[in-house]
Amino acid sequence: MNQERVFKVLLGPHISEKATMLADGKSQFVFKVAVDATKLEIKTAVEQLFEVKVANVTTVKVNGKTKRTARGLGKRSDWKKAYIALQPGQDLDFISAAE
């Protein structure tokens, strides 16, 4: 996979209470990813960017919420998130990967 696609697949980490509990207990990390990204592309992107070994990738399509506005009904965009499970002994550090 070329370097340009690597940066388009991973949009950023998804920080939530559930994601924090998974990172602490099960060594799983949650990322917002491109809607058209495949599991193999996500695995390759994480391994290249963070230099870790990925054991498993699970993806979830999140439907955007319908919101009421002053102009009527609106809809937020659909997005995709990926749960990344690392192999035993591996750890992902966001700070050192940014340097």
TrEMBL record:
Q: Which residues form a coiled coil?
A: none
User: Membrane-spanning regions, if any?
Assistant: none
Domain of life per record: Bacteria
Keywords, sorted A to Z? Ribonucleoprotein, Ribosomal protein, RNA-binding, rRNA-binding
Keyword Phosphoprotein in record? no
Q: Which GO terms describe its cellular component?
A: ribonucleoprotein complex; ribosome
Mind listing the GO molecular function terms for this protein?
rRNA binding; structural constituent of ribosome
GO annotation, biological process: translation
- One Pfam family matching this protein: Ribosomal_L23
Quaternary structure and interacting proteins, as annotated: Part of the 50S ribosomal subunit. Contacts protein L29, and trigger factor when it is bound to the ribosome.
Q: Tell me the protein family, please.
A: Belongs to the universal ribosomal protein uL23 family.
- So what does this one do? One of the early assembly proteins it binds 23S rRNA. One of the proteins that surrounds the polypeptide exit tunnel on the outside of the ribosome. Forms the main docking site for trigger factor binding to the ribosome.
Q: Which HAMAP family match?
A: Ribosomal_uL23_B
- Write down what this protein is called: Large ribosomal subunit protein uL23
Organism source for this protein? Thiopseudomonas alkaliphila
Q: Which gene specifies this protein's sequence?
A: rplW
